[in-house]
Amino acid sequence: MAKVNAPLFSFGASGKLANALVYFGWKGLNCVRSYVVPSNPKTDAQNTQRGYLTAAVAAIHAAEGDVTNPLVAADKAAYALYGSTFPTPRTWFNQITQRWMLAEVNGEVAAVYANGEFEDPATTEITITLFNHQTAD
To answer: Is residue 39 part of a domain?
Structure first.
């Protein structure tokens, strides 16, 4: 049942009205929309995408907990800087996840990169430790 705070459509209401309308506050506005039952498609394509996301999150957590070369604050800052270069900025976590999923979709090796450093600042060579936490099927 909707809770009315003042005359309807004047101030605000919140809740559901007869499985037809939903009243809610959003960013200081009083809003209403039709009642929608969300769907949860279980198609093969959707399950594949969910698997990619699960693998990406597991890889990030594994890289953070790696004993010899963990994903540290400097790596996270580098990913955050990389994510900030896009029109829709991303957090470091979202940037790693996005790159992982793109690699999976494109049939490339998905990986979490960490511990990159310049051997000699005068050159353009970079040493990168690559964490690939995929499991063999």
So the answer is: no
Residue whose pair of structure tokens reads 């790696």 in the numeric block: 66
pLDDT of residue 76: 92
User: 130: helix, coil or strand?
Assistant: strand
Residues 6+ apart with CB under 8 A from 90: 83, 84, 98
The parent domain of residue 103 ranges over: 44-131
The helix/strand/coil state of 105 is helix
Residues 74 and 16 in one domain: no
Decide: residue 95, CB within 10 A, 0-12 exposed, 13-18 middle, 19+ buried: buried
CB count within 10 Å of CB 124 equals 7
Q: What residues in the chain have per-residue pLDDT under 50?
A: 1, 135-137
- The strand pair at 3-4 and 13-17 is best described as antiparallel
